[in-house]
Amino acid sequence: GKSIAAIFAEEGEETFRAWEESAIATLLEQDKLVLATGGGAVLRESTRRRLRQRAFVIWLDADPAILAARVAADPTTAQRRPALTESDPVGEIEAVWKERRPWYARVAHRRLDVSQTPPAELVDALVRERPWQS
Questions:
Q1: Which DSSP state fits 84?
Q2: CA distance 106 to 96
Q3: What is the pLDDT of residue 80?
């Protein structure tokens, strides 16, 4: 397989988004599934509609500065993720976050702020609460 960065460079974002849309549609036909999408999955209206109708969507939200620090700490980021703007990494994250945030809010059934809480604690809370069953 190719990295997302390679697909963007060789095929373009539109091709990637079409493949992403198709993959999500196929996966959402299954029962009892945890699907972690990329942040841009909400860019296509048809994908937003499918996610909202066929899944319980949990939006993992964090402050852009924290996201930038996490991205900067990951040495594989440049190889795996394409640049989406001409900005510096922090500026890019802020711009993309502002653009996509309204879409996330419309699609999500539940928003979790993951800025400070360790992943294991978030998972434990979700397993206890099971918001998708209410």
A1: -
A2: 16
A3: 74
CA–CA dist 130, 124 (Å, integer): 10
Residue 38, φ and ψ in degrees, nearest 5 = -75, 165
Contacts of residue 132, defined as CB under 8 A and 6 or more positions apart, other chains included, come to: 56, 109
Model confidence pTM above 0.90? no
Q: Cβ neighbours of residue 20 under 8 Å, at least 6 residues apart?
A: 37, 38, 40, 41, 44, 47
Contact between 102 and 43 under an 8 Å Cβ cutoff? The reply is no
Which pair of tokens denotes residue 124? 């434990």
The number of helices, as runs of H, and strands, as runs of E, in the chain is 7, 2
- Partners of 60 in beta bridges: 112
The CATH number, out of the four listed (1.10.10.60, 1.10.10.10, 3.40.50.300, 3.30.830.10), of the domain defined by the range 4-133: 3.40.50.300
